[in-house]
From TrEMBL:
SUPFAM superfamilies: Ribulose-phoshate binding barrel (SSF51366). The keyword Cell inner membrane does not apply. This is Orotidine 5'-phosphate decarboxylase. Pfam families: OMPdecase. One of its GO terms (biological process) is 'de novo' pyrimidine nucleobase biosynthetic process. GO terms for cellular component: cytosol. One of its GO terms (molecular function) is orotidine-5'-phosphate decarboxylase activity. It comes from the Bacteria. Substrate binds at residues 13, 35, 62-71, 125, 186, 195, 215-216.
Length: 238
């Protein structure tokens, strides 16, 4: 049977350190992996990363780097020094992604620590086909996500972030070893909010997602711990 705790990543999207700390403390028995994203990182200048390292939790640093190759690879080296377990860049040009893959490996070897898993964001789960048309892309979200996943694989990074709506096709195209991280996860009764390509935890697992990212359905719940445990159970029963 799958261990649901090893699959669930909780997104701590608050802009105050004290609120993040309170959530982490409430969830520490039921959750092993926490995501520190833009909002939390910028507001607390990375303090949450230090707190999670002190607690021995796995850290997903979600800053979605997208810049010229030299800037990206240098930022990746800094993230390695923060001892993160998984981190995001955007799927961009091959050279930029290649340099990130090499930088992570070199920096981890230099420090003799574990290399973070680097995943590239393919197509944000808040985007629809119409949104892509509006920004000048004549592909469907699924076509673009698959194309970008293949490019990410070619570059040597470890995996991608995608909606679970297309994860089965990406597994088919890139293989089961290529890491798939799926946000836009919504239990059947949860509010969708600004997400457009959502999938339930059970369906995401059945379609081959390695990791599920869940924020508001847990962090905004009346009882976050119970909500996390329900999702862990749903993953295990999938
Ligand atoms: O990279 C991400 O984690 C990410 C990519 C993506 O395509 N969609 C997406 O929602 N995310 C993140 O996943 C989390 C989802 O949060 P909820 O919508 O509250 O469950 C947020 O922290 C987003 O920043």
């Amino acid at each position: 049977m799958i261990n649901g705790k090893e699959k669930l990543i909780v997104a701590i999207d608050t802009n105050e350190f004290d609120k993040a700390k309170e959530l982490i403390d409430k969830l520490e028995d039921s959750v092993d992996i926490f995501k520190v994203g833009l909002e939390q990182y910028v507001a607390t200048r990375g303090k949450t990363v230090d707190y999670l390292n002190e607690k021995g939790k796995k850290i997903f640093l979600d800053l979605k780097f997208h810049d010229i190759p030299n800037t990206m690879q240098s930022a990746v080296r800094a993230a390695v020094r923060d001892k993160v377990w998984l981190m995001t860049i955007h799927v961009s040009d091959l050279e930029g992604m290649r340099q990130c893959a090499v930088a992570a490996k070199e920096e981890a070897e230099r420090l003799n620590i574990q290399k973070p898993i680097i995943v590239g964001v393919t197509v944000l789960t808040s985007l629809s086909n119409q949104d892509l048309q509006d920004i000048g892309c004549n592909m469907t979200t699924e076509e673009l996500a698959i194309k970008r996943a293949k490019l990410a694989k070619e570059s040597g990074i470890d995996g991608i972030v995608c909606s679970a709506q297309e994860v089965d096709k990406i597994v088919e195209a890139c293989g089961t070893e290529f890491v798939t991280v799926c946000p836009g996860i919504r239990p059947a009764t949860a509010a969708v909010g600004d997400q457009k390509r959502v999938v339930t935890p059970a369906d995401a697992i059945n379609k081959g997602a390695h990791y599920l990212v869940v924020g508001r359905p847990i962090t905004k719940a009346t009882n976050p711990k119970e909500s996390a445990l329900n999702i862990v159970r749903e993953i295990e029963n999938a």
